[in-house]
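Note to self: the last two entries modelled the partners one at a time, which told us nothing about the interface. This time every component goes in together.
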Amino acid sequence: MKIAVCIKQVPTREWQPRLNDDKTWIREADASFEMNEPDAYALEEALRLKEKHGGEVVVCSAGPSRVAQVIREALARGADRAIHVEDDGLASADAFVTSAALAAAMKDEGFDLVLTGLQSDDQGFAQVGVIMAEKLGLPHATIIMEVNVDGSSLRVKRELEGGWFQWVAMPLPAVLTIQSGINQLRYATLKGIMAAKKKEIRKAAAPAGAAAKQKIVSLYVPEKGKKTQIIGGSPAEAAKELVRRLREEARVIQ
Amino acid sequence: MIVVVAEQRGGALNRATWETIAAAQQLGGAAGAPVAVLVPGARAGAAANEVAAADVQEVITLEHAALEPYTPDGFTAALEAALEQLDARYVLMPHTYQTRDFAPKLAARMDRAIITDVTSIKSGGEPAFVRPMFQGKLTADVVPQGPAPHFVTFQIGAYRVDHAKKGASAARVRALTVDVDASTVREKPEAPFQQAKQAVDLSQAERIVSVGRGIKEQANIAVAEKLAQALGAEIAASRPICDAGWLPMERQVGSSGQTVAPKLYLALGISGAIQHLVGMKGSSTVVAINKDPDAPIFEIADYGIVGDLFEIVPAIIDAVKT
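The predicted structure of the combined assembly is written out below.
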């Protein structure tokens, strides 16, 4: 089975946001980056499917040169080769532009299955996988918690809200967006890191004419909805004061 | 015209539809555009009659065999055909898991803009849609590009059900028919099910102590459990903790877990990703303890302590006992 996994490089969880001068994007020079977490689960699922059914795992990423870091990491974890759609404009691209870039680079590969995370931790559109399915003309399912492949058919467990699930069957090839927690992630071994250095990374240019369908006119630190009372002091002082306020002001404990 | 796409299953309307109607009324008021509610399904009548109570110009049922059960192929084909017959400037939907499954496909099929997870609208001139980015660390004002209709989905809880204005009399209900070939639907869904009976009903809890990534390792859960015991609280967690198996899935709070509204919600080491916040923002009093002063959880907390939870929690337990 030939499986594609689309991964995105996003700022780390510890990153403190800084804005660029015109306040429409972040100051990337200040950021450190990592693999988008749901995409890491999609990669792991692809590696498990390959171990079970054989075939190939190809990791695809659309972004500036810096995304080579997460591509290398995916190759070290076990992906066989990579496609990098490289363009500086892809750093802040919307879901249409990103999907167009990925779909164009993947369309002649004839993948049986395309996996990606359900959304990214940066822009958080939750759109790229679904738009890609439409552009590739493939059926899809989103927020997937289990993947079973049997010959040319696919049966997946889709998460619904509030603890409900649903099995959905569809023919291959197909696109799935993977939920975090579907499996236990593996980490790269030293052997994997060494092997990754010899693996192929095909560079592709972003397709011309993919226009953005949304524009960020202003980016800012959120206005606080509630007036949070920050309680200072030593741990013991802060704890004592918190308990006093919960008893006397909020009256929610005895 | 502004079209709200209602969500219903078996005639039961998803309450988030009312939130979207409230958003549509605000947008319609600013843009001077009437609001219509489109109700797709195999039997849309009951849900259509329910939303007809809203102050909207009309309710439109869209009944077709390809709409039941829900599939992204069926919904995309039927809604594209329906929207071709309606002169919509905006198409609004609640940001439910179902919307997330088909709306980007529909927008891509029609080659139109889609802005997701919107929390408010800035009107006055060209409307801008406000949405969280970077896990809620930043907020963006976003403007759709290209020709109408523009698709917009609204975060659950961003608009209030009781802010949807009701009409003086029931709105007109009319039916729209579309020609869709049901054999083009490739996805074959089975009946929804619940994994296990929810043994723990956190929705009734008066006090909840909830743990997030900041707890660092499984052994440290005991620290939070001691605090819960001291406060007479239930223990709960954000998704990563349950994914790791440190607490059972049934104790997960958030969009994929339980929705809670206790008197006291004490968040330990929870950064406050949107998916978690939607499950607990109805709590009366929120306390956040986190080492990161910029964690989004502080935006909705009533009381906050910035610091090391492993020093602060034992001190709270001591303070409660005295």
